[in-house]
Amino acid sequence: MSLKIYLAGPDVFRADAKELGEAKAKICAEYGFEGLFPLDANVDLSNLTPFESGLAIYGADIELMDRCDLIVANMTPFRGPGLDGGTAFEMGYMRAQGKPVWGYTLDPRDYGERVEQPEPGWDVQKQHVEAFGMADNLMLVGSIAESGGELLREAGDPAEPQHHLSAFRKVIEKLAASQKR
């Protein structure tokens, strides 16, 4: 039985979301895994209010995650210095179930390096900026480390699908190698 992998990330917001999700699922299949992308749920949103649509998507994504054995998250910064909030939730949801968490980011810098700091160590809202040498919030990176997963940090252009696919393939290769131990 092949491992089912939940393919998390803000990829669902891209114009080429369906194609990118299919390409990631194909990479998974090359290594004997089954990749499940949030858009695979095919949620019928007709006759729903925007709020009801959001809840329907939420429920479908929860059901999809429940079917999976682990998660590979695109942790590339999204609309700010950190990863997508939905992806962060999905990582925590999977980790709370005891499932392994893996990830990649196309920004190799530490989180603190990406946050605007008018004064060293303090952001524009006068909040302390964590400096733990991690790619994102310590709870997110900690969920990967604690679960036995890995986080790949690689420089790339988030707008370029091939950069995502290259980094994603490297994560899947490492995951496949870890299964042979």
UniProtKB/TrEMBL annotation:
Q: What is this protein called?
A: Nucleoside 2-deoxyribosyltransferase
Q: Which InterPro entries match?
A: 2'-dNMP_N-hydrolase, Nucleoside_deoxyribTrfase
Q: Its GO biological process terms?
A: deoxyribonucleoside monophosphate catabolic process
Q: Which domain of life is it from?
A: Bacteria
Q: Does the keyword Methyltransferase apply?
A: no
Q: Which UniProt keywords apply?
A: Transferase
Does this UniProt record's set of keywords contain Kinase?
A: no
State the taxonomy lineage.
Bacteria, Pseudomonadati, Pseudomonadota, Gammaproteobacteria, Oceanospirillales
MF GO annotations: 5-hydroxymethyl-dUMP N-hydrolase activity; transferase activity
Q: Name its species.
A: Marinobacterium mangrovicola
Q: Which SUPFAM superfamilies match?
A: N-(deoxy)ribosyltransferase-like
Tell me one Pfam family matched here: Nuc_deoxyrib_tr
